[in-house]
Amino acid sequence: MVSVAALFTTTANLGNVTITAAVSSTLHINGNLINCDALPVTTGFVDINIDNLHCRVMVSDSKGNFSLDIIRCNSTPATAVIALLN
Question: What is the pTM of this model?
Fold first, then answer.
């Protein structure tokens, strides 16, 4: 599990977060979106791109939570680009 928590007042780049996963594993990506006033984003979505697969998940509740499972069928290193949009 990788946990990243921070409060930003402008657009921020978290850099690279590296995760070592087993072959044929399911990536579980979850979190919550907050705006610059530290209030939950209730109408946003998250775009995730990994292994040439584009996934989009909507915020699921009034607290800004989102959750997505992605099945990876190989063990080669990959980069996931995650964009949080309001």
Answer: 0.69
CB count in 10 Å sphere of residue 65? 14
At residue 1, the pLDDT reads 46
Beta strands in 1-86 (DSSP E): 25-32, 45-50, 53-58, 65-72, 81-85
**22: number of CA atoms within 13 Å, CB side?**
4
Phi, psi dihedral angles at 14 (to 5 degrees): -80, -5
DSSP state of 34: B
- Condensed to tens digits (0 to 9), the pLDDT of residues 40-82 reads 888 888 888 888 889 999 998 999 898 989 888 877 777 788 8
The Cα 69–Cα 56 span in angstroms is: 11
